[in-house]
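Much of what follows relies on a compact textual record of a protein's fold. Here is one such record, which you should read through line by line:
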Amino acid sequence: MAMCLVSIIDKIGQCLALNTATAAIFVDFKTAFNQLWYKGLWLKLYKLDCPAYLLAWLRNYLVGRSAYIELKETKSTAFTLYKGVPEGSRIGPAIFIVYHYDLLNCMSLLHWKHIFADDLSIVISPSATWSTKELIPNLVKQLKDVISSLISYATMWKQPINFQKTNWTLFHRQVSPAIAPVICKGYTIPHETKVKYLETILDSKLSFSSHIDYIESKI
């Protein structure tokens, strides 16, 4: 986790050193581990040349599980689960990452992207040829392209995106820049001036002042 955090901070810092602004999107998947699609998992493991004995073990581990709902002293009848990995299991996050091994490939190679468990982040790499006037509009356009690719991927592999918790941040050194709304395929991606990522608050100036205030409030 620490390496991922250092990497994204370094990437944002590099972009700010070369340009006046860059953007990052932080994606949240809706009940991520509970949505994992078994047929999609078998297909991807087959493409990865997964050994037959391991595939058989995973099938035995995942398929045929049941659950029930308990409310106070009342229990529902048991029902069969057709997707998802056992919550709280050690292997669950590993299966999730393997299932999404090709997720990062659905986006442009120009952008920095990383997935840690079910936390996905993408930093948009601005072009040195963009003028100051073009910078933010072009960043927004690139964001829309990334989101469009993610929506297509999420639809194909039955891994819905939680758009209420997915947001983006403009990291900049400008004074009150005009920020256009990001709307893609009918979904609005809210802009936040600071975001908590991997337990660290990143503000739009990358000053860490908000994170320091947060830590001090806990002391």
Remarks:
- Residues 38-82 form one domain.
- The CA atoms of residues 3 and 9 lie 10 Å apart.
- DSSP finds six helices and twelve strands in the chain.
